Amino acid sequence: MGVRGRAVSVVSAVNWATNLLISMTFLTITEKIGVPNVMFLYSAMCFVLLVFVILCVPKTKGQTLEEISKELAKKKSFEIKLFRQAQPQESLICKSPSTECSANI
Asked: Which Pfam families does the UniProt record give (predicted)?
């Protein structure tokens, strides 16, 4: 619950900043590239953000804030589960240190 207040304030600030950015640039961009192209640009940005949310934001349905916090604390780095991890190939791994292996690295 301690994170909730900070998270709401960050989300609110980002929302206001995004609204300000769109409001200040809409007319200028519309004059330069036209209304259809501006709408396509905004829809492309929405699509990119939708893909980001689908791939990177964990599912939290039915979880308490404490459970979500514990799950996010487990993740130490940014991960995208799009591809499987590549398995190391034995031919590329040196089994003993030698001049041949160090020369290839």
From this structure: Sugar_tr
